[in-house]
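User: structure tokens for Putative, please.
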Amino acid sequence: MMLTILSVLSRDSLGCQLCQQGVDVVYDLLETGATKEAIEAGLQKICNVFPDGEWKHDCEVFIVAEYEKIISILEADFPSSTLCTLMGACEYPLPPISSTCEMCMVGMIFLEDLASNELGLELVEFVLDYVCEIFPDTWYSDCQKFVNQEYEKLIVFVDNQFPPEYVCTVTGQCEFPIDPKEEGMCQFCQGAFTFMYDLFDFQSETGSNVIEIALDYVCYLFEEGATRDQCFIFINQEYDNLVHYIENEFSPKAICSLIDACDYEDPVYETECEFCRIFYQLALDLISFDATEDAIMELMEHICVIFDSKVAQKTCKIFIDKNFDKLIESLVQKYPTEMACEMFGACTM
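Assistant: Done. Predicted tokens:
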């Protein structure tokens, strides 16, 4: 999908200044309602920053081929340096890069800055075609290879303004720190959902649509093969539940317990007091530190499925129904187990 032009354009500062001056002239033409021919002629003059020959010719061809998208970029009020950087005439202020992970992060941060202008799908495709122009020759080919390989995913990620760390991790450029083979599925599951929570604000900035897209790609944290395939099957089976849990701010530990990625043994108890201690401590373990009252109430609607036996599930539901209001108050306030169970009347001093 990558267009093959301008990979050898000049990056000297004079050329950058001339390019920006040319783009500023085009901005003035747009504001005065100049004809398409006049605007195109103004853009063509930008190509004079390149030496005569193939480079200048490629620039002129680029202007004609991408005219509408270039105008869209300008109409989106991007600074002149943005277009000149995509064309390769201006050098992007790159930090030191020593790995494909760092390369990916730099490229995605650049795209994140552009996407904040709400590019739209067509312009996302356009900037993806030229984003590698920000890199020097030593990383240019690696960037092209990455973009070509992950093109369809990147369109979705950039269009939805997904965080660079998420993009670079699920596309395999940055290593996810937890290995399911070494640490086990429970820890991996909690790590994956902690990773998502750390990078997204699902409540205030996004919503169910972005949750669903993030879930569509979270299995790419696994290496390609049987484990990733099993993850996709699992996500598909639990899809609606997972969206619901995330929307209601369930903690990673709660999510992974409710979907059986983490095992809980059925409680062993003989009295209501013993069950209360087991259940309440479990509930404390599953709620996040800053869980809202609504999130805790929602968790109480689902928590009993953690237990395998029907008897334990029924006992759990009866206990919640009997103590619901006090239970919510105690969990919101993070009362210790002994204190809470005495408040419920399940245990006596």
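User: Anything notable?

Assistant: The chain has four domains: 13-86, 100-170, 180-258, 272-344.
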